[in-house]
Amino acid sequence: MMIVSVIVGSTRQGRFSEKPAQWILEHIRKREGIEGRLLDLRDFPMPFFDQPAPPAMPGRPPYEHDIVQKWTAQIAASDGFVFVTPEYNYGPSAVLKNAIDWVYPEWNRKAAAFVSYGSAMGARGVQQLRETIIELQIAPIRQSVHIPPATLWAHFQGGDVAKGLADLEKSANMMIDDLLWWTSALKAAREV
User: Fold this and answer.
1) Of 100, 101, 104, 68, which is closest to residue 85 (Cα–Cα)?
2) Single pTM value for the model
3) What are residue 38's DSSP bridge partners?
4) Tens digit of pLDDT for each residue in 93-140?
5) With CB atoms counted within 10 Å of each terminal CB, which end of the chain scores lower, N or C?
6) How far apart are CA 123 and CA 135, in angstroms?
7) Residue 86: inside a domain, yes or no?
């Protein structure tokens, strides 16, 4: 069984991210042989990275923060990821970048996809995340789901978000197909 974790990349009040995160998680859970998990950064309130040694340093002792240890264990248990991310000022949220930065070997040689929203449908935030996760030896897949501003505004106005997300079903399924292919291939390679 492969484990694909959907990471909710915003913790702010009134956030939109949990709606597309739940939506994409439901799609993942429909796939045979896949365990979909939700990793909500609200459940992992990590301090900003402040350690003397970076996570990639060989021989580095484990970090002592309980929440960081729990987060790291969840990343280690996952075979692939979907990052649900807002775009803030041309980039991902600071809380998501911080959560990514606490971990290194547990990310390595796994696949990731993106669901985004915000200015330019979150595409610029995803572009920055792609560059970051390549450094972590994560394979970003090409296909992403970019949520149009009308769906985001519907959330803030109390409107119908589900209809806007339903319009993205085709691109979501294409993204999941690609993610699962890469996740399977990389899991098999890691087990050799």
Assistant:
1) 100
2) 0.96
3) 6
4) 999 999 999 999 999 999 999 999 998 999 999 999 999 999 999 999
5) C
6) 19
7) yes
